[in-house]
Structures are given as C-alpha cells and as structure tokens.
Design a protein that fits this description.
single chain, 264 residues, alpha/beta, 6 helices
Length: 264
C-alpha cells in the first residue's frame, strides 16, 4: 500500500476506474472500452485510475486458456496503452490486479508495474490509500480519503460479491472505498459511523461520518468462455463513474453513475 495525493483547483472531479479489461481474452469488449475512453475524453472533469487486470495474462500453469488467447502478454500491455492513449494525460495512478501475478510467478516480471510505466502513471502496488483535494475558491478545501484495491475473491452470487467488496471497511476509515475483481459495477449504500469530537459547551459531541463503497465493474462479457463453461450467471461489461464535489463551505458530497453495455 502506498500514499498518493491529487489536488484540483475545481470543486468537482469525475473519477473513472478502469479495471478488468482482460485484453487478450476473446470476452474483452473492445467497443465498450473505447466508448468509456470517449466519455472520459469528452468530460472536462474526468480523471481515471487503473485498478489491475489490464491483460488476461494466461499461462500454461494458470486457470486461463493460454491457447485461446488473442495476444501474448506484451501485446496485451501495448493494446491497453493504445486504448487509453486518447486520455493518457488524465490518468492519476495504477495498482496491481491478480491476473498479472500469473506472469510474475513464472518470470518475475510485474505486468502491472511495466504497464503503468508505459502508460506514464505512477504505480502504487497492491493498494492506494490517498487524498483527493477539491476547492471551491481559495478557502475551505474538501479533503477526501480514498482507499483503492483490486479486490478479493468473491464467489459467484451477487451477495458474496458484495460481501467481498465490503471487506476493506473493517480496516480502513475512508470517505470512499473502491474495489473490483468480481466483474460487477455497483455502488453500495453508505456505511455511517460516529466518532466523538472534543468536548465543547453547548455543542454536539458526536460527529457522524459516512463511507461510500464502490465495486467498479469490468470490460469482460461472461456470456461465453470460462464463465459459461462453469455455468456462472452471465455478467455484461459495466463501469462506474464517481462524482466527488464540494461547495463553498468545503462540504463533501459523492454520487455515482453506472454505465452498462446496454446503455452505450
């Protein structure tokens, strides 16, 4: 886990997580990715992060079918760079996924680290615990704390995927927690918790806080391939956009929008 900080002079930022592209796999939806890239390109407030699994990275010793791959790992890296080139200047940072470990275990080469180098963004390893600072004028900045991790094994049911997405809130106090891995895009209801402030006369000692949790989707169409072979419920490509914004008093607000294959 590494620390990162992004400051903006605007009072609003739209964050687009790109995760689970699975390039090199026949189920990776190129058109969906291109349309999401176009959204970011045309969004003046848009910024993106990379959250792992840019390539399928199948090897002879992994679960993936190396013989059905449409590209080798180097070609997968270069294809991700090609797809994200139109928004290269809007990238913030990248973290690792689980598929890159297939290459690392057999070669010692970190797929995600070298991909981030090609993309020209900082590589923060396993997770990023970071600050997003927004301003409305010169005073009262809104400072968001955000925890970002690729996510853990989640099982097949939607319930198990949601449970896996909530694991980090047991450890990290943050305004927003972003995970993925389960190939669904969903914004979970906020989790509210109370802390005690400094005792003051005639003031409320309780401070209420909220953590918003987001599972960030994928570009993988599971109606065919490994998921279909295992009779998993099909999931279509979907991604999330998170809107962070503040007012003149520095009050923090969050909302999100989910883009699914049918919608675009």
């Amino acid at each position: 886990m590494k620390y990162y900080k992004h400051e903006s002079s605007n009072n609003e930022l739209h964050l687009y997580p790109f995760v689970c592209l699975h390039r090199g796999c026949k189920q990776s939806d190129t058109g969906f990715i291109e349309q999401m890239v176009e959204r970011v390109k045309n969004d003046p407030l848009g910024r993106w992060i990379y959250m792992g699994d840019g390539g399928e990275c199948a090897t002879k010793n992994s679960k993936g079918d190396v013989y059905s791959a449409t590209m080798n790992p180097t070609e997968q890296q270069n294809d991700v760079v090609r797809l994200l080139a139109p928004i290269k200047d809007k990238g913030l940072f990248g973290i690792k996924g689980n598929h890159g470990n297939r290459v690392y275990k057999e070669t010692g080469l970190d797929f995600d680290e070298t991909l981030c180098a090609k993309l020209g963004i900082p590589y923060l390893g396993i997770a990023a615990y970071w600050h997003l600072v927004l301003r409305s004028g010169k005073s009262h900045p809104a400072i968001y704390t955000i925890y970002t991790h690729h996510g853990k094994d989640s099982g097949v049911s939607i319930g198990s995927k949601v449970t896996a997405g909530q694991v980090a809130d047991r450890t990290f106090i943050a305004d927003a927690i972003l995970t993925a891995h389960s190939h669904i895009a969903i914004d979970l209801p906020p989790r509210y918790y109370a802390t005690l402030g400094r005792p003051r006369e005639k003031s409320e000692p309780f401070i209420w806080n909220a953590t918003y949790e987001y599972i960030c989707g994928s570009a993988y169409d599971s109606r065919t391939g490994y998921a279909a072979d295992k009779m998993y419920p099909p999931l279509l490509p979907s991604y999330i956009m998170i809107n962070f914004n503040t007012n003149a008093d520095g009050v923090k607000r969050q909302s999100s929008e989910i883009y699914q294959k049918e919608d675009i």
